[in-house]
Amino acid sequence: MSQIWIENGLFIPMNDSALQFRGHMVVTDDRISYIGADAPNPAELSPNAERIDGSKLAFMPGLINTHGHAAMTLLRGFSDDQNLQVWLEQKMWPMEAKYVDKDTRAGSALAIVEMLKSGTTAFVDMYDRMDQVAQMVEQSGIRGVLTRGVIGLCPEDVQQAKLAEAIAFARDWNGKADGRITTMISPHAPYTCPPAYIEKFVQAAHDYDLPLHTHMSETIAEVEQNVREYGLRPVEHLDKLGFFSRPSLVAHAVHLTDDEIALLADRNVAVSHNPVSNLKLASGVARVPELLRAGVTVSLGTDSVASNNNLDLFKEIKFAALLHKGVSGDPTVIPAIEALRMGTVYGAKSIWQEGQLGALSEGMKADFIAIDLEQPHFYPQTDIVSHLVYSGSGRDVKHVWVDGRQVVKDGQCTQLDEEKIRYEAAASFERLLNG
Amino acid sequence: MSQIWIENGLFIPMNDSALQFRGHMVVTDDRISYIGADAPNPAELSPNAERIDGSKLAFMPGLINTHGHAAMTLLRGFSDDQNLQVWLEQKMWPMEAKYVDKDTRAGSALAIVEMLKSGTTAFVDMYDRMDQVAQMVEQSGIRGVLTRGVIGLCPEDVQQAKLAEAIAFARDWNGKADGRITTMISPHAPYTCPPAYIEKFVQAAHDYDLPLHTHMSETIAEVEQNVREYGLRPVEHLDKLGFFSRPSLVAHAVHLTDDEIALLADRNVAVSHNPVSNLKLASGVARVPELLRAGVTVSLGTDSVASNNNLDLFKEIKFAALLHKGVSGDPTVIPAIEALRMGTVYGAKSIWQEGQLGALSEGMKADFIAIDLEQPHFYPQTDIVSHLVYSGSGRDVKHVWVDGRQVVKDGQCTQLDEEKIRYEAAASFERLLNG
């Protein structure tokens, strides 16, 4: 049995108890065995417990990034300030076509380093060569919800092979790495997968009891195309194909009608809001206040680094809290605590691990982070939730634990060789560019 | 004579030469005496020159924050997610009314620590008790453009006293601290100063050869009020009062017509764009792409911490680059380099110090910063300008020099006691809250 006793820390538990309180937390193996204002019962403490002085730190649940493509981290800064079609067709796709296993591995490793150091303890990843990503999740100590994203604009035999690969990956890796890996299956998007092909994913999701993930309504152009080709907007289209009969997480959901919002709420679909990516690619501003008001679970994703250009989920939290105020004209929408929920407890709900992740409560998984409060931008220490959302960043994260294991200590990854990972990412990029 | 020789650094000069190059820079006393790809001429180097290995650092001009209220840093997180009137009347004003000199000093000191550490080397500040702010500028080594902001909703004798105080401050401190302090005079805003009172500032600006600064068109409500009371929108109103006959910097300028944009361009008025504050207070989204297209100088300001909630100008740069893409629907507007210009060379132009600040060129003032490039979010090192804007933050700043003097070394202020300043800010806040 391993045990950690955090003494006299400032806790932001993100559950139904106090917003913040000073107190103690005990982690036994991979779970929180005690959290409260009082010191833990000595009878329940191991004499070998690691004691951590929490007096200058804030402790909160690890952040959950609900949409991304880690391997694309190699393409950071490779194409900015471009129209979507130029970005995609002339820049992203030709480079991605050159990827081999070690590139996927190098990009994913760099992404995981960035995410862990900035306080993300669980991430959703949709890409190909997912075995490589899964191995990096296993090695790094992070938690991953992984899925092979499939573009279906190809002959039927290729479609079949891709679907089979997606199912095989999902079945092989579900529950691996001590349960840190879970899986989904993912048709890439309604505009890249014919309806009959999407139906095969829905069937497979039923057959193998897997959740579904897809891109949806990111741009006006794809919504218009959907209406033109299928006579329906994407939400109704996916609903008709049975998509929402399974637990579903959709990324982006920028362009929605009131009816679509109501349908998403009714079908209990979770939305991954990607504010920075949506701004950078000029996709628009998602109707997040309306989604939340309708009762839709909205969490946050970075999308890939190629459209962001980093993986600090505190940045998405900040943009979510600020952007919708300015655009709606209402400074009270998405208050700080709601933005922080989007990055934690709503994230857990979006990956169907509510009650296990996203809050600091007894019995839950010990995925949590420690923030260094002794910094000028956290003074005066009036309201730490406000400070984390509006003034803080992933750079304030000092320590990170996943499943009770410390994966970042004093800002450095404990399970990964950061210098080697930076070097290998640079080498992979050079080869992709000139190879 | 003191001399610094930066060897083999990556330079982002922000002038008409290359976007970035690897090379050398020599600082002699307070100015850049050499910058270029080749090593400096040994005959021009002092044997005692401090040599700095630049191989893992990027060097760029220090950032220029063109609108703020440093003393309000004490009110960080004190009122978020509120309607403007509640925020102002129930929260800000009652606390500000309790300020005494040492509070202004404590708030300004904390603000300067934050700014220096995140790479800001010059800042515009409009508040009262400005002697306190000026003394902190003198002590800290930062550069300040300071002005006593005057609200004129008071009897005429009080108006006269305030104007006299504003003029006295501007005349006393202009050129002080080895020229690091320059001054302006500032009627607070058209909605807080009657027209006849604004005209007195204009006259004083002519009499004493001072530039003018004011808040303008931050909210729709104040624009509508201006039209109601004076029959003109704020730009035409200020123009009619002669405001723009002097060098002028206006903050916010969120709500503008095409005609107002054309008039600002014609009168050579600089605009301080405050994207985060405008979003947080739900003021709206300024028409920055249109302003830039019309030839208006647009720089960046944080506004006060009470509506931001930190002073990292890299954040404003990022928001400027991202926000206007998403809102306009055009991903090519405000490319990375243009956003970086807004934080540097356009900032210098906004405070009438172009050619002295905002770029790294021979003969210019040695106000510059060094960025630590050995971090995961800067890899692969494809495009450093893109990385600084979209992926970086003030937390990446390692060293800062102002006037050739190193004011931040390895992330710590050299002229200020950071721990004492944090403590004093906390103590001042407690006193304001409970006193």
TrEMBL record, chains A, B:
<keyword id="KW-0378">Hydrolase</keyword>
<feature type="domain" description="Amidohydrolase-related">
    <location>
        <begin position="60"/>
        <end position="407"/>
    </location>
</feature>
<feature type="binding site">
    <location>
        <position position="303"/>
    </location>
    <ligand>
        <name>Zn(2+)</name>
    </ligand>
</feature>
<keyword id="KW-0862">Zinc</keyword>
<comment type="function">
    <text>Catalyzes the deamination of 5-methylthioadenosine and S-adenosyl-L-homocysteine into 5-methylthioinosine and S-inosyl-L-homocysteine, respectively. Is also able to deaminate adenosine.</text>
</comment>
<dbReference type="InterPro" id="IPR011059">
    <property type="entry name" value="Metal-dep_hydrolase_composite"/>
</dbReference>
<dbReference type="GO" id="GO:0046872">
    <property type="term" value="F:metal ion binding"/>
</dbReference>
<dbReference type="InterPro" id="IPR050287">
    <property type="entry name" value="MTA/SAH_deaminase"/>
</dbReference>
<feature type="binding site">
    <location>
        <position position="67"/>
    </location>
    <ligand>
        <name>Zn(2+)</name>
    </ligand>
</feature>
<dbReference type="InterPro" id="IPR023512">
    <property type="entry name" value="Deaminase_MtaD/DadD"/>
</dbReference>
<feature type="binding site">
    <location>
        <position position="218"/>
    </location>
    <ligand>
        <name>substrate</name>
    </ligand>
</feature>
<comment type="similarity">
    <text>Belongs to the metallo-dependent hydrolases superfamily. MTA/SAH deaminase family.</text>
</comment>
<dbReference type="InterPro" id="IPR006680">
    <property type="entry name" value="Amidohydro-rel"/>
</dbReference>
<protein>
    <recommendedName>
        <fullName>5-methylthioadenosine/S-adenosylhomocysteine deaminase</fullName>
        <ecNumber>3.5.4.28</ecNumber>
        <ecNumber>3.5.4.31</ecNumber>
    </recommendedName>
</protein>
<feature type="binding site">
    <location>
        <position position="188"/>
    </location>
    <ligand>
        <name>substrate</name>
    </ligand>
</feature>
<feature type="binding site">
    <location>
        <position position="69"/>
    </location>
    <ligand>
        <name>Zn(2+)</name>
    </ligand>
</feature>
<feature type="binding site">
    <location>
        <position position="215"/>
    </location>
    <ligand>
        <name>Zn(2+)</name>
    </ligand>
</feature>
<dbReference type="GO" id="GO:0090614">
    <property type="term" value="F:5'-methylthioadenosine deaminase activity"/>
</dbReference>
<feature type="binding site">
    <location>
        <position position="96"/>
    </location>
    <ligand>
        <name>substrate</name>
    </ligand>
</feature>
<feature type="binding site">
    <location>
        <position position="303"/>
    </location>
    <ligand>
        <name>substrate</name>
    </ligand>
</feature>
<feature type="binding site">
    <location>
        <position position="148"/>
    </location>
    <ligand>
        <name>substrate</name>
    </ligand>
</feature>
<dbReference type="InterPro" id="IPR032466">
    <property type="entry name" value="Metal_Hydrolase"/>
</dbReference>
<dbReference type="GO" id="GO:0050270">
    <property type="term" value="F:S-adenosylhomocysteine deaminase activity"/>
</dbReference>
<dbReference type="Pfam" id="PF01979">
    <property type="entry name" value="Amidohydro_1"/>
</dbReference>
<keyword id="KW-0479">Metal-binding</keyword>
